[in-house]
Each structure stands twice: as C-alpha cells, then as structure tokens.
Design goal:
The longest helix is centred in the N-terminal third of the chain and has 24 residues, at 27-50. The protein has helices spanning 4-21, 27-50, 52-55, 76-92, 94-98, 124-134, 139-150, 161-164, 185-189, 285-294, 303-311, 327-339, 347-353, 399-410, and strands spanning 24-26, 59-61, 73-75, 100-102, 107-109, 115-117, 169-171, 175-183, 197-200, 203-206, 212-219, 225-237, 244-254, 257-260, 276-279, 296-299, 317-320, 343-345, 389-392. The chain has a 6-stranded mixed β-sheet with strand order 4-8-11-12-13-14, sandwiched between helices. The protein is α+β, with helices and mostly antiparallel strands. Strand 5 (107-109) and strand 6 (115-117) form a beta hairpin. The chain has 14 helices and 19 strands.
C-alpha cells in the first residue's frame, strides 16, 4: 500500500490545525491596507508622470519582449511603487511584506547612467536625497515624490464601508503577494501622445486610462487567489483642479466569504450583439475573425485594464490565447472575479472539459500563483500564464464563447504560440 497520500493528508491536516490556532490577521484591516496602498501608489504614478520635462530621463529600457515583439520599459514610478507597497505593507503586516513579489527589481538606471538602489526606509529625508540624485538635482520634484511615498493618501473618494464590514480572520503566515506596480507601462510612457484612442463601448482602446496598479494576495499552500485591488490612477481628471483621480475596485474570496466593492457601469447604448468579448489588439487573426463574426469584440491595452472592464460589466469575457501575461498581471483581478462568482482559467486547459453550469467544477482549470507554469524558463518568464486566459464574471453568457473557441480549435487553428 502506498503510504505517501496518507502521510501528505496527515501533514496537511496538522498544518491546517496549526493555522487555525496560530496568529491571525483581521481581513478587514488587510483589505483597507491594500486599498490605501493602491492609492498611495497612484499618487506616486501621477506625481512622476506630471514632471514631463524630467520624465524622459526616468525611463529604463529592459530586455526586448520576444512574446509581444516590442521593447519593454520600466520607469522610476514602477520601481518606487513596488518598493513602497513592500515597505508599508510590511509595517502593518510583517510576514505579508516579506512575501511581496512582482514584476520589477529595486534597481533603476536613469538615462543619465545614474543608478538608484531604491529600497524605502523610515527616513523620508534620506529618501528625498536619493530621489534628488536620480532626478539630476531637481529639489522640487524630489520633494513631491517623497511626499507621495510617505504622506497618507486621501481616501475620501473611495468607498470603504464594505471593506470595513468584512468579518474574517486570516492565518498570519499563509499568504503571498503579487504586485504589478504599473500595468500598461507603455501607455503610461506615451500618455498624451497620438496613440491615445477614444473609448469604444465604454472601454478605452489605449492611452493613460488603460494604466492600472495591481495588488493580489494568494494562498501559499494552495496557490489560489484570495484578495485583490485594481487601482486605475488616471480614471478621471477633475475639471477644476486639473488633477487626475482614481477608481478603485477590490474583492476578497476566502473560505466561503465573498465581499467586493460592487462597482459596476452601465453599458453604452448600441453596444451591439451580446455577449461582449474583450481582447488584446495583438491577438491572433484567426481568433479575432472567429469571435468578430459572432459577438461584439472590443480591444484594449493592458491586461489589468481588460480585467477591470470585465469586472465593471463592460464585457462578458476576457480571452487571451497567447502566453503574454504573468502571475502579477492576473492575481489581483482573479481574486476579485472569484468574489463576484466568476473565475480566470487557463484557456488551453479549460476548453477541453469546461463546465458551463458549475463555477466550482472549473476551479481545477483556474490559474494558480504559487508555482511557475514552466519552471524550466528563466527567472521572469517562468511566471508566464502559459496557457492563455479565459476570464469571466458570470457563466450566463459564456456558453456561446466557449463553443466558438472550441470550434476554432477543432478547425485546427493553433491558439497558443510557443
């Protein structure tokens, strides 16, 4: 008799009992902290972008992105935001802060060649000096960025009552955090340029509106997403102050407790035939054509923004057939989708036996966030969502979409690019 499963089950049981009786965190406080951190991050993003005369010097080119066939970049805002989240989350919840992982490293090299090892410290004055060095001695800009990092954000425009009402205790040492400090960095860099395009069916195709900040919490034992925040830092510009304001969507789903911000939008009139599928502009032509024939298809930049549009009710499904997103792109929105009764599946796995009647039966096809999909890839690419994405907020409009996707596969179209 093979004793391994018995031993594993016994170990799991012991582990669970330990968690139930060990130190816990108040889920309401965790969620409010994540929301506050997302707005602190949004302030950093807005301040860095507002210094247009300096901004070009605050962009670092990374390795060429072979999947998207274009150059990849990071900015001072990307690095500052990720390290700000790490530092302030660790002040409130030390174990969570130690478990932050994300797209960026803490090193940044400006175009001047100036290198900054950016790790947030308690001394704001010291951080101001570090920023001033990479900003070419610009004192005013250094002061503004430092204030954005250290000043408590104004949360008056964000509804927190539902977050405060969460009645749940979380094991203190069971969770990790995935952060994408600025999703759609290219849209952030090109803000205000000719690439910005007006909304289609309520969704912007490109531009600064497509930039999002993503903070996702996942279970270190199961790899399942647990809680998430999507902050859209350039949602609306106040006509009087001429300053950008945020939109923040959040949710938590753990042990049967599902609470979320419940922010929804009405679809514009004339959206067309339902269901509505949101896609990447770089999606394969075969899939575009197949979906265009049957549904209303809309296109948008940024994985986070496409997830946000789905959560806002402006689309019924987000479909991506290629391995061009990472765990940090999907963890936060995946958790929010689960809190509203939806999910985010590995497209390649889900299309084989997807259950159109039971969300629970499809959990085995959902993305997980603990282990790499392909451990043989390098340190970054191993965290790709290898099988693509099939995300939905409700099963009600998914039957036709899944049937069409299966038909595309049956016709021999290669959905996934190696």
């Amino acid at each position: 008799m093979d004793m391994q499963p018995i031993r594993r089950a016994r170990q799991d049981s012991i582990w669970d009992r330990k968690q139930e009786t060990g130190p816990t965190m108040d889920a309401a406080k965790v969620m409010q902290t994540l929301i506050s951190l997302s707005e602190r991050a949004a302030n950093v993003a807005r301040v860095v972008r507002s210094h247009s005369e300096l901004f070009e010097s605050l962009i670092q080119e990374k390795d060429f992105d072979t999947r998207r066939k274009k150059s990849d970049f990071k900015t001072l805002a990307d690095v500052t935001i990720q390290e700000t989240i790490r530092y302030f989350l660790g002040r409130e919840f030390p174990y969570l802060g130690a478990q932050v992982r994300g797209e960026e490293t803490y090193g940044f090299t400006a175009k001047s060649g100036k290198f900054l090892s950016l790790q947030i410290v308690p001394n704001a004055s010291l951080m101001k000096d570090l920023f001033r060095g990479v900003l070419g001695g610009d004192e005013a800009a250094a002061v503004e960025i430092t204030k954005a990092v250290y000043d408590d954000p104004d949360l008056s425009g964000i509804e927190l009552d539902k977050a405060k009402s969460i009645n749940l205790q979380l094991p203190e040492d069971r969770f990790g955090v995935w952060v994408d400090p600025l999703d759609a960095t290219s849209e952030y860099i090109n803000a205000g340029s000719a690439t910005a395009r007006p909304p289609s069916h309520g969704v912007f195709l490109s531009g600064i509106h497509c930039v999002t900040i993503l903070i996702g919490v996942f279970d270190l034992k199961t790899g399942e997403p647990v809680a998430g925040v999507i902050n859209q830092p350039f949602y609306h510009m106040d006509e009087h102050t001429k300053k950008w304001q945020s939109r923040c969507v959040w949710g938590i789903s753990y042990h049967g407790v599902n609470v979320n911000s419940q922010i929804r939008c009405e679809r514009p009139l004339g959206t067309g035939k339902a269901p509505v599928v949101i896609l990447s502009p770089s999606e394969t032509n075969e899939l575009k054509e197949a979906l265009d024939e049957r549904f209303t298809t809309i296109y948008a930049a940024g994985a986070g923004y496409k997830f946000l549009s789905l959560l806002l009710g402006l689309a019924d499904s987000y479909v991506l057939s290629r391995a061009t997103t990472f765990k940090w792109d999907s963890c936060a929105p995946h958790a929010i989708l689960r809190s509203v009764g939806g999910g985010c599946c590995d497209l390649a796995k889900a299309l084989v036996n997807f259950d159109l009647h039971s969300v629970q039966n499809n959990r085995k096809y959902e993305l997980q966030y603990l282990h790499p999909d392909d451990p043989d890839r390098d340190a970054t690419d191993c965290w790709l969502n290898e099988g693509g994405i099939l995300a939905y907020a409700s099963l009600s409009d998914l039957a036709e979409i899944v049937a069409t996707l299966r038909q595309v596969m049956a016709e021999g179209v290669q959905l996934l690019e190696s």
